[in-house]
Amino acid sequence: MEYLLNITRQTRENFIKLIETSTVEELNEIPAGFNNNIIWNFGHIVSSQQGLCYRLANVQPVIDKQYILPYTKGTKPEKFIDAEEINTLKELMRSTIDQLEEDLKNNKFLDYNAFTTAYGVEVKSNAEAVQFFVVHDALHYGIASTLKKVINNNK
Predict the structure, then answer these.
(1) pTM, whole model, 2 decimals?
(2) In sequence order, what DSSP letters do the residues of 91-151 get, joined into one string?
(3) Residue 154: pLDDT band by 50, 70, 90 thresholds?
(4) Alpha-carbon distance 90 to 112, whole Å?
(5) Is the pLDDT of residue 1 over 80?
(6) What is the dihedral sign for C-alpha 52, 75, 86, 150?
């Protein structure tokens, strides 16, 4: 499990570097042909991890709903995300994995409601949720990297 969490940490650090090399305007821009932006993808992986690991285990998420609801599956960017919220999301990007690691060690997750992802993969436990969100985080980091390239090419 530690290995998977470390892969997630590295993916998230790479994503944070992408955020830090972008302007707030670039992070909020939705290029033609896309339905979301870089910062939505960033917030989405924080939000999704809370749903996959906490909500589906009937455990209260460790972050406020204001950082979950706007980024859940099926949503799209509805407002301009300012620098303050971006900084909060960066902090949550790191702290949620550290908290999850602690909660896993303390056996906080005793139950799990199986869930079939949009990939068509059934997730039946927190261990499987961690395995899945490693792929999920990388997917959204890749989408955000593509968005950044498109934005830079349009300048």
Answers:
(1) 0.95
(2) HHHHHHHHHHHHHHHTT-------EE-TTS-EE-SHHHHHHHHHHHHHHHHHHHHHHHHHH
(3) confident
(4) 28
(5) yes
(6) positive
